[in-house]
Amino acid sequence: MRGKFITFEGGEGSGKSTHTAALAERLKAAGIDCILTREPGGSPGAEIIRHIILSGIAKPLGTETETILFAAARDDHVRVTIEPALDAGKWVICDRFIDSTRVYQGALGKVDMKLIRSLERVTVGPNMPDLTFLLDVPANIGLARAKTRRGTEKADRFESEAIEFHEDLRRAFLVLAERETKRIVTIDGRAPRDVVADRIWTAVEERLIGTVTPVAEAAAP
Ligand code: T5A
């Protein structure tokens, strides 16, 4: 049986890396084979493009070119990492995916949504997420968390945008979630880590776990 595909979205420092890892642990404990991946990146080719985008060297080329670079990275990531894992029956948990492009490049970068949807059709095709978590935190909290975690390292291409940009991002993610309630579950990311992790797990159990047999059980004599 094909695996399930779960993505995490939200602003900077909203807890995506923390909770993708926590969910992977819980799935493994439940006997479900899964891989953890991220965007931009997640395959050797896409990791090279990640460096180009997040270093900021592509910024002068404009938001459309950045969108095409994200799409090139996604195409490689889906082909090399995501689709083979899903086909092998593994679950895939991905830190950021199509909704980040729709919000960062579409809603905020003003790139034509027709271009974004066309690129999605080519790069994602039938590999749409089964479930997406939007971790919602106010921009000032997310940025403060990201800054603490980053330490003395330089802020990347998007983290260094003004606070208004991050507030607009938050609103745009919420609008997207309201439009796609079947796929996107919004979680209040301000809650303590354990509470957020429990809410995520409950949604996964309710929406996806009932539909699969854990690998360990399926293999039992
Ligand atoms: N991008 C990406 C686009 O513009 N378009 C696209 O199509 C795609 C795919 C990627 C950048 O690329 C952009 C968006 C991004 O700007 P990145 O380096 O991958 O950049 O960084 P982010 O995805 O933004 O992730 P961050 O690393 O900034 O934040 P996370 O992963 O959301 O947060 P996390 O888990 O690292 O947590 C941050 C800190 O908060 C603490 C953690 O311990 C950590 O220290 N924390 C909590 N503290 C208190 N309470 C909680 N509930 C907490 N949860 C976590």
Your description of this structure?
The chain is α/β, with parallel strands linked by helices and 221 residues long. The chain has a single domain, classed as P-loop containing nucleotide triphosphate hydrolases (Rossmann fold), CATH 3.40.50. Helices cover 55% and strands 12% of the residues. It has helices at 16-29, 44-54, 63-87, 98-108, 113-123, 139-150, 163-179, 193-207, 215-219, and strands at 5-10, 34-38, 91-95, 131-136, 184-188. A five-stranded parallel beta sheet has the order 2-3-1-4-5, sandwiched between helices. The longest helix is centred in the middle third of the chain and has 25 residues, at 63-87. The mean pLDDT is 94. The protein binds P1-(5'-adenosyl)P5-(5'-thymidyl)pentaphosphate.
Put simply, the count of helices is 9
The biggest sheet amounts to:
5 strands, parallel
Assembly of the depicted chains: single chain
Strand order within the widest sheet?
2-3-1-4-5
CATH superfamily: P-loop containing nucleotide triphosphate hydrolases
- Helix percent band: 40-55%
Average pLDDT rating: 94
CATH architecture assignment: 3-Layer(aba) Sandwich
Q: Give the tally of structural domains.
A: 1
